[in-house]
């Protein structure tokens, strides 16, 4: 009996301008959602800070290896 070994599917996300725009849009939605929720003001502020820090770190990690122009 012959064994057929299948290779694993490996996908990678490479930095691009569209990915950066998508990341900013998703974090913008999270920011707006945290604004319109009915939580205590201190929790809202902490959500703003956490979303902003996460967006900054994510965009910093997506620096392109070469310019887009």
SSE order and pairing:
Blueprint: H1 17-36, H2 41-61
Helix pairs in contact: 1-2
Can you walk me through this structure?
This protein is an all-alpha fold. It has a domain at 17-61. Helices cover 59% and strands 0% of the residues. Helix 1 (17-36) runs antiparallel to helix 2. It starts with 16 loop residues before the first helix and ends in an 8-residue tail after the last helix. The mean pLDDT is 82.
What can be said about this structure in brief?
The chain is an all-alpha fold. The protein has two helices and no strands.
Distance between the termini: 55 Å
The helix/strand order is HH
Mean pLDDT: 82
Helix content: 55-70%
Dominant shape: elongated
Count of separate DSSP helical elements: 2
Backbone structural class: mainly alpha
The main β sheet shows up as: none
Low-confidence stretches: none
- The proportion of strand residues reads under 5%
Number of strands: 0
Rg, nearest Å: 19 Å
């Amino acid at each position: 009996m012959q064994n057929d070994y299948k290779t694993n599917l490996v996908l990678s996300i490479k930095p691009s301008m569209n990915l950066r725009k998508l990341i900013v849009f998703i974090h913008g939605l999270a920011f707006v959602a945290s604004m319109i929720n009915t939580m205590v003001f201190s929790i809202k502020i902490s959500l703003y800070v956490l979303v902003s820090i996460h967006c900054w770190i994510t965009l910093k990690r997506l620096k392109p290896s070469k310019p887009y122009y």
